Fold this protein.
Amino acid sequence: MGGPPAVAIADDAELARAARRGSRTAFGRLYDRYARMVHGILLARVPHGEVDDLVQDVFLAALRQLSALRDDGAFGGWLAMIARNRAYDYHRRAREWTELPEDVRAQDRHTPDALAALEAIRALPEAYREPLLLRLVEGMTGDEIAERTGLTPASVRVNLHRGMKQLRQRLNSEAGA
């Protein structure tokens, strides 16, 4: 009863097998299906300005590592783990930081409210960050999140509910402060 529909698993498995045999079209369809999920996972863990480049890195790594995928039907969970590992790698690297000039910083297209909400979500426990960002930022449904990440629909529902409750509490306490 729990878990993604068999059709979606078979479809992912077929696409993964075709991609492993060298089909760029199949890999492109997997990219189209999973790019939002990867974006949301990375957005939960790295600075928003780095996310788009890291999404590309994740898919390049997946393409190179397709032969390591043991269960073609588990492509989504496997790709999610690559995304999480890529975020961890990002933070392990020593980076040089240069302060941006004031006029460049002023061009940031993100509103202060959006950035504050993103930071509030990032401060939540890890189990809630991903599902909330996949739902609120990437616009995925609970069933899509479950299907793409390999979580059960019940886990996604619980994590979204508890995460939203904690997010509301956090935002309300910040607004009152």
